[in-house]
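Suppose you are handed only these lines of text.
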Amino acid sequence: MRTMISLALLGISTLGIAAQSTTVAGDRAKDDWKMFRSLMDKDNNDKISQEEVNKFNPMPLRVLERNFGQIDSNQDGVVTFQEYTAYVQKLRAEWENEFQSADTNKDGGLSKAELASTKPGQLARIKRQFEAMDTNKDGKVTMEERDRFAPDKTKVQKAQQERTKGKPRADRGAEQRAK
Ligand SMILES: [Ca+2]
Ligand SMILES: [Ca+2]
Ligand SMILES: [Ca+2]
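From them, the structure of the protein bound to calcium ion can be written out as follows.
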């Protein structure tokens, strides 16, 4: 009799856990879905296509997440559009300065030789994707070429997957941080 009761109790509690995890999963999925829809569902049809996922650029979100304190320039705990705009403009100005000081012969473009004499972390994307960015193949990347450049995300992701394949997780973290 006692065994039956405890079995019955066990049954109830297992059911309880199952029901709970279903609810948790359901809630999480609902939250995630809301986010996907607001960020990616461009044609607003309550479906997310592979193309919509590929087109989504998570970079601004990461910038906001990582630099919230800096972007919130008046330190009132909220970021406004004005604060965000000011931050993006500041970043751009810094980047343009970097570009211009790297352009030692002042011809408006960066050659491989000019890039080679900058610090490793500077203008990293141009260094990494020089050939693809130099669309007119004149051996230098201009600001305009860099601005127009939109990498094929699926190719970039594939390349990243190839590079991280078989590596232990710790290494991967280090690589991410080094970027
Ligand atoms: Ca603020
Ligand atoms: Ca130059
Ligand atoms: Ca060029």
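What can we learn from it? The radius of gyration is 25 Å. The beta strands are 109-111, 140-142.
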